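Review form for a predicted model. The reviewer records the input and the model, then writes brief findings.
Reviewer: anonymous (R2)
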Amino acid sequence: MCHAMPENTGEGVEMTKLVSESPHPPVPIPNSRQRILELAVSAIERGGESAIRVNDIARESGVAVTSLYHYFGNREGLVAAAQIARYRRITTEEFVAVQQMAEQCANLHEFRQLMELWILRFLNSPENVLSRNIRLQTYAAAITRPDIATLLAEDQELQGERMHAFLEPLKARGWIKPDVDTRTFGSYYLGVMMGHVQYEVGRPRVDIEAWKRFTLNAIMQIVTEDN
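Model under review:
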């Protein structure tokens, strides 16, 4: 049975909690480069890119400025790496959580419930406003920063492969429709979820609940019907 499967209330699921409960949580690499990167990410979250000060980060991480430049080339390289690290962190946490639960689904009915909850969480959960904002900030930075654009493209390719690896075994079990291109679906899914920003920012005069139902029904088209 899918782990921690709550009732489908539409209120969202605390999936990030499941990451910390995983028997095999990701282990951070305890090295100087990782420490520098973590400090740079924290600086961006406190005050934006301008808050990244090379001398301060080098001092806090216990390395020489020359070592920082060895890892990242220059300040711009550090900023680009930190922006992508923020982006990658949220996408990895979100994906790992649902993948862990999907592996515990015993049948198609449970999997359909999980998919619906996953989608509704993205649409309803308050913490996903921050998640979408981080994505938007990364995309905005990539427009004028070729270094960030290159790293973002690489990460999006990785996400497509991750979605493919996640959904293909489910397709083999008959839970995903056989004609679904799982890599393309990964890009489509991200685009649809990012579309929710227009409501959060502009507050257009639309029936947001109807929009959510339409989104849910559209995405669920990839899942085999539960007869």
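Findings: The domain at 86-222 is CATH 1.10.357.10 (Tetracycline Repressor; domain 2).
Further findings: Residues 3 and 98 are 10 Å apart (CA to CA).
Recommendation: see findings above.
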